[in-house]
Design brief:
By secondary structure, the protein is mainly α. It has helices at 2-8, 12-18, 22-46, 51-65, 78-85, 92-108, 116-132, 142-157. It has one domain (35-157).
Length: 160
């Protein structure tokens, strides 16, 4: 907390008035940065013409950009991911991020509105899995694109 207070230019007591622990300060910082990232993912997808292209490219965008992001890449570090795991996809703030990333899908497929958060969650879980355990998908090339098209799209879009 001392390092955080120093970086923020405040005293530790002032910092503790806003955050009761290092974890709560960390979560607040991640939430603030994640909002911008979620909007970037949605903006990237909104340029594409089909819901299938949007889903595939959102996943590929996250797989490529999350590990490069100075702050958000911390969610991939085991010590940090433990802090976030308990609230992922359950608390309101992470659900709002899911709604942001689901918006480009719902824009083209309004019939999926009630499933938007769940679709975004599956996409996020797959992207994180591909980052942590790339296996044969070490790049975001055509092989990965085809895999998502064959194995994920039918389940997400109810066409399988």
């Amino acid at each position: 907390m001392s390092d955080i207070a120093k970086e923020a230019g405040v005293t530790r007591p002032t910092l503790y008035k806003h955050f009761n622990s290092k974890n709560s300060a960390f979560i607040a910082a991640i939430d603030a940065v994640a909002d911008g990232f979620a909007h970037a993912v949605a903006e990237h997808a909104s340029r594409l013409d089909t819901v299938e292209e949007r889903i595939i490219d959102m996943i590929l965008f996250v797989v490529k950009e999350l590990p490069r992001h100075e702050t958000l890449s911390l969610v991939l570090v085991p010590e940090c991911s433990v802090v976030l795991a308990e609230r992922a996809f359950s608390e309101e703030r992470p659900l709002e991020l899911s709604r942001i990333t689901a918006a480009p899908i719902i824009e083209l497929r309004p019939d999926l509105r009630s499933e938007g958060e769940e679709i975004a969650e599956v996409m996020s879980r797959l992207a994180i899995s591909l980052i942590l355990f790339p296996g044969r998908f070490k790049s975001s090339g055509e092989e990965l694109r085809d895999f998502i098209r064959r194995r994920l799209l039918p389940g997400l879009l109810g066409t399988g």
